[in-house]
Amino acid sequence: MGKLSALAVITLMSLFMFLWYQEYIQSVCVSTMLCSGYTQADEIGILHTQDTNIHHLNNSGTIFQNKSIQHLDNTSKTVPDNVNTKEHVSENYIQTRIIPRSETNTSGGMLKRIRPEEDPNKIQDLFKATHRPSPVRNITVPKMTSIEIEPTAGDKHIIFIETRCLLDESQSRSDPGLSLHKRQACVIESAAKMNPDYKVYLLYSCPISGRLDDSSEYVKTIFTYPNVKLWKLNIARHFSETPLEKWDFRAAIKSSEWPNEHSSDVLRFLTLWKYGGTYLDLDVVILKSLDKLGTDYVGVESQDSIASCVLSFASSGIGHAVAERCVDELLTNFRGNIWTHNGPGLITRVLLKMCHSQIVPQLSTSRCKGFRILSDKEFFPIPYQNWELFFNSSASDETMEIIKDSFGVHVWNKLSKNSEIIVGSNQPYSLMAARACPRMYSVAGHDF
Ligand SMILES: *[C@@H]1O[C@H](CO)[C@@H](O)[C@H](O)[C@H]1NC(C)=O
Ligand SMILES: *[C@@H]1O[C@H](CO)[C@@H](O)[C@H](O)[C@H]1NC(C)=O
Ligand SMILES: *[C@@H]1O[C@H](CO)[C@@H](O)[C@H](O)[C@H]1NC(C)=O
Ligand SMILES: *[C@@H]1O[C@H](CO)[C@@H](O)[C@H](O)[C@H]1NC(C)=O
Ligand SMILES: *[C@@H]1O[C@H](CO)[C@@H](O)[C@H](O)[C@H]1NC(C)=O
Ligand SMILES: *[C@@H]1O[C@H](CO)[C@@H](O)[C@H](O)[C@H]1NC(C)=O
């Protein structure tokens, strides 16, 4: 592009931006350039654009046309260029942010931050009153002395287990405080946010160096949910007075070819035997309250397997009976040389036997005496073969449609962990996270 036409584009874009911002940021931005790159904003909702309609405005910004706006917790909507921007304000989506190029060094890089705001009526006030960012402020985290809280059997709770340091404390990362991946923090937040009436426990095996307050910002966001509880694992205590008390857990795990997976398998069944509740893997993003599901269920993850990453067993009745069988099965039939043997393999074997069935499709709630076998749509709407859909912006609408009625979505972290989630992009994972873990998302940075 010649210098002249570049200049013309820039001028036009500047004008466009100016008009856009004028509507939104009347009292704050005096010119487009003042607005571009500003970070002092409370942002609400996400603004999407089609990649092809993004225009780069020299090195300092990106400009948007054909905007589609995604409300937090709600639908998305495309906004034509000529729409009256005032209309948006009244509908509570507010502003775009133009981010400096350095933050968007991928070509389709977009922008936006979000700030969860519970009360839509406040949005305009907020917007007028302050342009401070800090999506989450003044996070207070529990004192070290109060973290060995264990669940009470019979309570409504969700349990996550992080076993990284179980056998080898040197596995703990050097960062101070609680150490989690951003995607794990997102999952914990999603469970806590969507289930405020459940306690959400993180059973955590690593030593905690320093104070929880020293954890990274995104980790601290999970403690802004009062129902999140940190539960430090104490192996001896955990196993005592259980059927596995005399079993040599350490030896079993040490000889396993998959010590992380297998220790997590053992702990999930044992923990549910002991406390009941719902166990979730740290890669199941929760999209809705699990209340409707009640207790006592598992999900089918494929034609021939029940999943072990979502398990709900009440602390008595049929749920506890299933848990009891699972723990027995561990005791008598643990194998360290087969990856799925002690997880999905185990729960599948136990249920086939208990429910007098030969194959997974025969399993049914009636055969299983009231213990429910959920279809794959509740937690596994995207089969593992299609995991890449979570990252594909081009197929976003279709993917979001597929998952829209699910309670949660298993994102197959083992396969997907190295694919990038761009904050603000149209990737299904990103859209899901914005909705399910808005606080983590708002501090996640460029990608996570
Ligand atoms: C981008 O353009 C604006 C005016 O349109 C100018 O003020 C600014 O210096 C430019 N930035 C760069 C990095 O070229
Ligand atoms: C915006 O989208 C409409 C409909 O998809 C299209 O006709 C129009 O050309 C687009 N405008 C720009 C500036 O890309
Ligand atoms: C979406 O928003 C509409 C009105 O704006 C509201 O009636 C509806 O309950 C919302 N849905 C969800 C899932 O929040
Ligand atoms: C640019 O992107 C690469 C790869 O995503 C990332 O490693 C790098 O830190 C980014 N640079 C800046 C300045 O954001
Ligand atoms: C939050 O922290 C800021 C600065 O650290 C302090 O001025 C403010 O009073 C705190 N607010 C609350 C509600 O604790
Ligand atoms: C993303 O989805 C589009 C549209 O369905 C498809 O053409 C493309 O191959 C997909 N890309 C990847 C990497 O799967």
UniProtKB/TrEMBL annotation:
Keywords: Glycosyltransferase, Golgi apparatus, Membrane, Signal, Transferase. GO terms for molecular function: hexosyltransferase activity. Residues 1-27 form the signal peptide. It is a single-pass type II membrane protein. SUPFAM superfamilies: Nucleotide-diphospho-sugar transferases. The keyword Ribosomal protein does not apply. It is found in: Golgi apparatus membrane. It comes from the Eukaryota. The keyword Repeat does not apply. InterPro entries: A1-4-GlycosylTfrase_dom, Glycosyltransf_32, GlycoTrfase_DXD_sugar-bd_CS, Nucleotide-diphossugar_trans. Residues 317-443 form the Alpha 1,4-glycosyltransferase domain. GO terms for cellular component: Golgi membrane. GO terms for biological process: glycosphingolipid biosynthetic process. PANTHER family: ALPHA1,4-GALACTOSYLTRANSFERASE 1-RELATED (PTHR12042:SF21), LACTOSYLCERAMIDE 4-ALPHA-GALACTOSYLTRANSFERASE ALPHA- 1,4-GALACTOSYLTRANSFERASE (PTHR12042). Belongs to the glycosyltransferase 32 family. This is Lactosylceramide 4-alpha-galactosyltransferase. It comes from Zootermopsis nevadensis (Dampwood termite). The lineage of its organism: Eukaryota, Metazoa, Ecdysozoa, Arthropoda, Hexapoda.
